[in-house]
Structures are given as C-alpha cells and as structure tokens.
Amino acid sequence: SDNQTDNNVAVWSEEVIRPVFEVLLYNHTEAYGYHMSFGWSVMNRGPSASVGYGVELVLLLPAEALGPGLNLTTADGTSSCTSDAGLSGDRMQIVCGLGELSGGERQYGSVTLPFHRSLLWVNVSTRLFSFSMYGSSNASEAAIALVRTFTPGADFFRPTLVRWYEDVTLTFNGTELDARSGGDSVKIVVDGNCSGDALVPSSGNETTQLGPPESYGLYQSTYRAVFFSADVVTVCYHAAGESEYRQLQPSLRVAGVQQYSPTHIATRAQITMVVEGVGLNGHWGGDQIKIVADGNCNGNEMFAGTVSLGRSALVGFSGTGT
User: Fold this and answer.
1) Are 68 and 44 spatial neighbours (Cβ–Cβ below 8 Å)?
2) Which of 20, 155, 243, 278 is least surrounded, with the fewest CB atoms within 10 Å of its CB?
3) pTM of the complete model
4) Strand runs labelled E in 37-90
C-alpha cells in the first residue's frame, strides 16, 4: 500500500428493488347495507423484497362529501385517514397515511358519504405518494374513476303486520325506486326463496304495479294487495336494471286463522274450540268468532245453539298463534 490518499476510495453499490403499486376503487353495491359508500385498496405488487416507504393515498371528491355523515375507515385500524376542504372550492380531499408496504402487502379502506343526491354517482380522483417512487415529486399520475355509491332498490318496508282479507298497502323506503311500468317489482313468497315461485295467495303478486304510478327516482314506493292466507312470509324487492330480487327484513306477518279444531262435533255437547294462526288476539278488544249457518260471515244467520262471541267473550280464548 502507498501513503497516497487520493486513490484510497471504497466503492459499494446494490440495486434497489423498487415496489410496484396498484390502486383500486370499487363499489360496495353488491352488499346489503352499504349505501353511500365505496371501497379502496392499495397494493405493492412488486417482489417480496421490495418495500414502499411513506405510502400515502389521496382521494379528491366533490365538496358535498365533506360534512356530517362522512366516515373514513381502514381494514387494519392502524392506518389513519383525514379529510379537509382541499385547495379548490368545488373539491375536498381525503388523505390516508399507509406507512410501509412490503411486496405482496395490501391495505384496504372504505369511505361512507353523507346522503346527498349529487353523491349517488361520484367522480373520484386518486393519487399515490411514496418516497420509493421515481421522479422528484414521488407521486403517481392522477387517475379518475366514476363510482356508484348506492344500491338501487328498497331497504325496508312498513307495516310488518297486516291482516288477511283486508286491503293493505306496504310502503317501501330506499334509493332510486322506480314505480314506472316495467320498473321495480315486488313478490311475496312463503318459503323464503326470492328466486323461487312459491307465491303467497293474494290479489296481486310478483307485480310491477307499484305506486305512485309512473314515477321514478323515489325514496318511497307502495304496493297494494289483499292477502288470502295467514302466514309469516318473505317480501322480495327487485330494482329495475338489477339481476335478481333482494330479500327484505323483517318477515311480513299476515294475521289470521290457519286452522281450527275440532271440525266434527256431537250435538248438545260442550266443546272447546282451538284456533291457530298468526297474530291472533284473544284479549279484551281483540279478535271475534261467530259460527254461521249460511256461509255468510257478514250476516247474522247464527248456527243453531251458538252465539256470536264478542270481544269481551274471548278473554278466555284458547287460540294459539305466532
């Protein structure tokens, strides 16, 4: 070795394995209960040895998205997202700090928006930042996606208890309901299978005859029918343009009698009649029973030896029901 210092230089180098990032935005509309929301994910698709440092996702949305009802979540609960008004008056921004992303690692999150008609469809601009990206800005090019944030159709209905042989109206509440001819439709089934055809006996079933007639973009639609059997049944709603019926909760209870016993009795014998059905009420002010000879339940031709059992007479009522 010599004593010269100008040539005592150590050189060391190693190729950096860079990450490859993927950003996805996706609808939640196939899942029940995800109205006014969408999901996002960021993945490092690079080799397992690659690491993305200081990864940050920025989402730009319409200004109406900033306010009460805006909710930002991440799947692991450790990453944090914040929101602010952004740099322009017509847009707001969401910033999610994701930290380090190793090769093959993915981070998930979701955005729930305040309910606003202008936010049913939103243009979302995305941009990703990382110290590990090429370029002086350490940022990706901005990309724009059109996201649907709602599931069209009904969420629930009222009332959930009706009576057989009465004209009833069910009111559906939801998003972008369509009561036009060929629009949304309703069917009510006895076996819980909205894809089947075990329809409840009624004056109108599996019908698009909803109200208010020839209206669309509704928050409420109505279905009118008379039910001819007592049962606990399933209400199914099909939104126009969707592929299948969707089951609504809870079940619909059609109050009435399903059966009674005995059906054969001896004359001059005291009997106890047991009535079974749905939603029966044997208390004061509840159900009534009468036995008629001419088949006319609205008449007064009582069967010989019987009387009309009024509301007060059914306090000792032995009927059963669900």
Assistant:
1) no
2) 243
3) 0.63
4) 37-44, 51-62, 71-74, 80-84
Residue 178, beta-bridge partner list: 216
Q: For the domain bounded by 153-255, which CATH number is listed? A: 2.60.40.10
Residue 261: closest CA among 209, 212, 319, 177: 319
How far is the C-alpha of 223 from the C-alpha of 206, rounded, in Å?
11
pLDDT profile of the chain (322 residues), mean per 10: 59 72 83 75 93 93 91 84 83 93 93 86 92 76 86 90 95 92 94 94 91 91 95 95 90 93 84 86 82 84 66 42 44
Prior bond of 213 cis (ω within 30°): no
Q: Are 114 and 64 spatial neighbours (Cβ–Cβ below 8 Å)? A: yes
Name every residue whose Cβ is closer than 8 Å to that of residue 249 and which is 6 or more positions away in sequence: 156
Which part of the chain has CATH 2.60.40.10? 153-255
Contact 72, 58 (CB under 8 A): no
DSSP string, 221-261: EEEEEEB-S-EEEEEEEE-TT-SS-EE-SS-EEEEEEEEEE
CATH 2.60.40.1530 given to domain 21-148: yes
